[in-house]
Amino acid sequence: MSDSTQDDVLPAEGNSKVLKMQSPMGIHDILPKDHEYFTFIKKVARHRFRQAGFRRITTPILEYTEVFKRAVGEDTDVVSKEMYTFEDRSGRSLTLKPEGTAGAVRAYIQHGMKELPQPVELYYIEPHFRYDRPQKGRYRMFWQIGAEIIGESDPALDVQCIFLVYKMLRDLGIAERIDLQINNIGSQKSREKYKEALVNYYTGKERSLCEDCQRRMHSNPLRLLDCKNEDCRILAQLAPKFEQYRTPEDQDFHRLVKEFLDELGITYTENPQLVRGLDYYTQTVFEFWDKSTGSQNAIGGGGRYDGLVELMGGPATPAVGFALGIERVINQMKEAGVIVPSKDEVHIFVAQLGDEAKKKCLPLIDQLRDAGIRTVGALGKGSMKAQMRLADKFAVPYCLIMGATEVREGVVIVRDMSKGQQRAVPMKDVVKEVTKLIGKENLDTYTPGEIAF
Ligand code: AMP
Fold this sequence. Notes:
Layout: H1 32-51, E1 55-56, E2 62-64, H2 65-72, H3 77-81, E3 85-87, E4 93-96, H4 101-110, E5 120-129, E6 141-150, H5 155-171, E7 178-184, H6 188-202, H7 211-219, H8 230-238, H9 248-263, E8 269-270, E9 282-290, E10 300-304, H10 308-311, E11 319-325, H11 326-335, E12 348-352, H12 355-370, E13 375-377, H13 384-394, E14 398-402, H14 404-409, E15 411-416, E16 421-426, H15 430-438
Parallel strand pairs: 1-5, 7-8, 12-13, 12-14
Antiparallel strand pairs: 2-4, 3-4, 5-6, 6-11, 7-9, 9-10, 10-11, 14-15, 15-16
Helix pairs in contact: 1-5, 1-11, 2-4, 5-9
């Protein structure tokens, strides 16, 4: 992932000479080396989700814009500034999904999941899109691992979400680098009084606020608490704390969350300023911060959203969820020096000279691959020298070589690349022989029906 921040000034339409053929700003290719991390992280996530009884859901990459406006809130940065919104050919407004919860909740309602045993536990691993300012760890297309527990309100479920993330971070070798921040922002009702107190506090201080906060002061005053602007942060530190406005129910809820976390040995930092960017949160909110850089590089976050299902037209249904940013997890793993196992290394390179040899090599390559041996064949017209140079580039431990003489004699030459030694093996024994050399435990076998997806 590169972190280009150059301006993305588009050339005039039709001026193809100046249009650089590159991915859009802030949107990156995932190259093979990073896919090793992606695959590893997805496997860990799927494993932990399955153990906990979660089922996978994939919602469409785009939804009617209304889904996000309603769920996330029109006053949020995500909806007001960051969505990729366009009209389809019949004039309906569609949006590339900027987050996962709204779509999951829309699907829960649309498919009558209320009739299933509750809570319904769903997870997803998907790309999301936000027209954000690109910088290190902040992209316009990014991948999230997310989960939603819909249909039950109990602090133990909030802690289940946090614990799942914690288990994954431990599996990925980065738990020690991450600090869990938690807060309780009460129910929507108990927040009303607090919002009033915030507006009172900020009244008269407008000139010290950034433009965004001046605008949000009346529409969404809670957001002033987690603004990253230096002056706004100073003011936020002195602002009234929600703690004094929590109802006895809010207090009980928060106390139990903390007790359950203690029970599971999860350490946390209480952060009264943590409110999260999206409107739908209630009660528990949490984020996973890099211990050294803090909120700028949260690798994940989540919280309870008891009012959202109803807000989106479903029956009153409590819920809680979280999302982890895969690119940020990968950055953490790289910084921590975590190496993931590579399954891309090629075992065998097959070199051949002449059409007759090529004819014999094609079925041989197929048999080797079926046996779980990762095989690359040089099937172009290169000289033997050029093919061997290519074999070196693949860093294969063994090479199979076949020319006209080997075809005539019914043998294949097996060359040990590190020792530089070679010997002729009868064609019928080659797969068995190579399997022995590679080792059964290293084979990449695929048995439909048995494979762990
Ligand atoms: P949010 O719901 O905005 O807190 O997002 C949850 C997680 O997704 C964050 O903690 C990040 O790890 C990741 N994330 C959010 N926005 C971006 C972005 N623009 N680029 C990369 N990762 C992101």
